Amino acid sequence: MSQAAVESAADIVIRPIEIADLPTLLALYQHLNAEDPMLDLPFAERRFAEILAHSGMTIFAAFAGDKAVSSVTLVVIPNLTRGGASYALLENVVTHSDYRKRGLAGMVIQKAVTTAWGKNCYKAMLLTGSKDPATLRFYANCGFVQDKTGFQIRRPAIA
């Protein structure tokens, strides 16, 4: 483990990502899907501007100094059922490999869920492609229950 990884939880700050944090967020995302191509910075900046302008969308990160070491994306979606209460979707949960097993992902998830409740969401959802019992147990320990069936469809590859 790197020296930076031995910092205490007291040294960790959780806050929304800002434009100046984009390079460290992109580096962190390499720990989510290592096979994903790294976005070129001008494209990433344009896409991030869209995210910042998207009402209800926030990327929270745990920072060790100026380095993003864990993050989650929260999307609050307005709704016309459930008395008009919104619902939330959590996506892109990732922790830098040097900082795992320290509770950071749980901390950013807790921040996202607390924010969702503060925005009157009636539920918060996430999907995982993992079948690893430890990962499923982690999400259960964060308060999520596996009591629905999830489906997805992906766009076919364009030749």
How would you describe this structure to a colleague?
The chain is 28% helix and 23% strand. The longest helix has 15 residues, at 104-118. Mean pLDDT is 92; it is low at 1-6. It is α+β, with helices and mostly antiparallel strands and 159 residues long. It is built from 4 helices and 5 strands. The chain has helices spanning 22-29, 41-53, 104-118, 133-141; strands at residues 12-16, 57-64, 67-77, 87-95, 124-126. It has a 5-stranded mixed β-sheet, sandwiched between helices.
Task: Offer a quick outline of the entry.
The chain has 159 residues and is of the alpha+beta class. It has four helices and five strands; from the N terminus they run E-H-H-E-E-E-H-E-H. Helix content is 28%, strand content 23%.
Cα end-to-end separation: 42 Å
Shape: globular
List the total number of helices.
4
Low-pLDDT stretches:
1-6
Q: Tell how many strands the DSSP assignment holds.
A: 5
The proportion of residues forming helix, as a percent range, comes to 25-40%
Question: Layout of helices and strands, plus pairs?
Answer:
Blueprint: E1 12-16, H1 22-29, H2 41-53, E2 57-64, E3 67-77, E4 87-95, H3 104-118, E5 124-126, H4 133-141
Parallel strand pairs: 4-5
Antiparallel strand pairs: 1-2, 2-3, 3-4
From the structure above, extract its key features.
5 strands; alpha+beta; 159 residues; 4 helices; single chain; 23% strand; 28% helix; globular; 5-stranded mixed β-sheet
